[in-house]
Amino acid sequence: MSEIFREFLKKVGSGTHTAKHLSRSEAAQATEMMLSQVATPAQIGAFAIAHRIKRPTPEELAGMLDAYDRLGPKLQALTPPPPYPVTIFGIPYDGRSRTAPVSPIVALMLAAVGVPVILHGGTRMPTKYGIPLIEIWQGLGADFTQLTLAQAQQILKTTGLGFVYLPQHFPQAHEFVPYREQIGKRPPSATAELIWSPYAGDFHLVAGYVHPPTEERFREVFRLLNIRNFTLVKGLEGSCDLPRDRTAIVSVGRPDESLSFERLKLNPRDCGFADREVPLDSPPQLFAQIRDTLNGEASALAESAIWNGGFYLWRCGVCTDLERGLARAEALLKGGDCQQKLAAIESAIAAIQ
Is 353 a member of any domain? Predict the structure, then answer.
């Protein structure tokens, strides 16, 4: 048993009236001890559930990310620097189970116009056991699971899309997955992962959330970490996908200003995109729907992809306003640019392997 970790556990697990918050450095040390499994399984499980009940503070989340920064993988800064900052999408690792995701299509759109994209995640995991990003890419013919970190770096450089795959690139984090299953709840690390940056260069961090307090907590973490260029989306199932059945609430940071942010409320009805969300029926059907969309076929999923792609083309600086972004997104799909980018990624992976 780790006596040091025992003191951390006593702090966060002492109950409603006597529990104490960890400092940033204590949270970093506790996270390293869990990832390295210096703490015992009983200690790790107890800490995970106690910390969830207490709720992590911004300082604790910053400390957790400090530990991820020290122990985790990091793709190196691209040279020469790309015309736009690398966009990192923070999407819940336990995937989607109700609505069809369009983030892979958006990633292809951005990569096709010169905005590099980094995704990260693992296999199906608790508590939702939804379809994860890696499985969608495999279903589309792009398998990132066998790439070394150096190979993932090469794919990012040649195609503009990189994937940090936990089982291959961050086994310490992947080995923490059984604890998620055993406690039956998302631990605070699932929150930290949404705003983790596995990239050493200039980046634009995009993260999804469900509950409004999470957005406020994220902004405070960004202040502590001096992250200025960010986009926070109250998205579908906590993802970065903008909804179509309600007004999208988005907070954007301004990298050239002093940690300020602007809250946007984007009504899809104003742009002609309001509709019910596309349901996620089965993985094979989702793969077929995405392929049809990449082939330029009109559908409800294509409309969702244009709505999201248009926003991100605008937000990433490719287009000067949302209207131009939406038109560009539609042109990228109908012109086959996204399909060509997917084919280029498949070829690049096949050439390395």
Answer: no
